[in-house]
Amino acid sequence: MSLLRLNLSALTHNAAKWPLPGKALLGCALAGLVFVVGDLVYLSPSRQRLHQVEAQEIALQQQVAQKTALAASLEARTHQLRLMQAKADELFSALPGESEMPGLLEDIARLALANGLLVENVTPLDQQPRPFYGVQPVQIGITGAYHDLAMFLSSLGGLSRIATVHDVALRREGKLLRLDLLAKTYWHAQSGGRSGQVLQGQPFIYDSAGLRDPFQRLAVQVDHLPGRPARAPDLARPRGVLETLAVDQFEMVGTLSRGRQAFALLRAATKVHRLAVGDYLGPDHGRVTAIHERSIELVELFPDGQGAWLERPRTLVLNLNS
């Protein structure tokens, strides 16, 4: 330590005798040393605080941008909220002020009678209170044909009162089908007893025309016989109503005789049609060629893809369950 102090004293004592370049170099070294020490002691903490402040400034600028965008869309959001509130109020006002169980039971009986169904049971269940509305479930069991049951469900959804259908179960019972379902009606629990008017939307109307009963047997088609060359059909001939339905949608339910002429009775959906030999059936230019007691035969025409036509026989058998 004393040696370092001695060298330093000697250095400062001899510095006055140094040439000008040496004095300048020594001054620069001392100035650099002072700058480095000042930077480490005073400037470095300030620089770190400056970086922190700049980062906070960037974060604040991002928040300001987000708040500005939110404020710009506030009017649109407020308008959307008002529309949603008005829609909710409109829906709640459509609910009746109290349970309409008697009216629902009357509607169920009326719809079942109109569609030719047999009501097996109608059991009202316990009411289910909700925060803003009440629910009244009803267990229903009815029996009938497939398309008649579908028409009943379609009509139930088009009632003037709000009713929904749940837990639908369908099973066969002999020649008919058994339908079990849970219907629910609703009322506004805080409406003060006033009855609103149900908003009628576009109702769904079930149309059985062109639809096949999936619980009935399909027509028997003789596919193993090859097509035979045939004359081209008259494409300008006006098509009949029975030619707009697929042959699979028909089932033979019986025959009818008038003198020597025999007729076949075919059912499509809920309608029964009478056909004689020579009548057309199906979209493939099908024509009845023979009528037997338990079946009918027809011939259909198909293009062979090369400009010619082929004829193919087909058979509809009697449905013994009809």
Number of domains: 3
Give, in order, the helices and strands: HHHHEEEHEEEEEEEEEE
Helical content band: 25-40%
Biggest β-sheet, characterized?
5 strands, antiparallel
How many β-strands, per DSSP? 13
Which fold name fills CATH's third level, the topology of the largest domain?
Alpha-Beta Plaits
Percent of residues in β-strands:
25-35%
Judged by helices, strands and strand pairing, the structural class is alpha+beta
Net shape: elongated
Distance between the termini: 124 Å
CATH top level of the largest domain is Alpha Beta
- At CATH level 2, the architecture of the largest domain is 2-Layer Sandwich
InterPro entries: PilO (IPR007445), PilP (IPR007446), Transl_elong_EF1B/ribsomal_bS6 (IPR014717)
Organism: Pseudomonas trivialis
Protein name: Pilus assembly protein
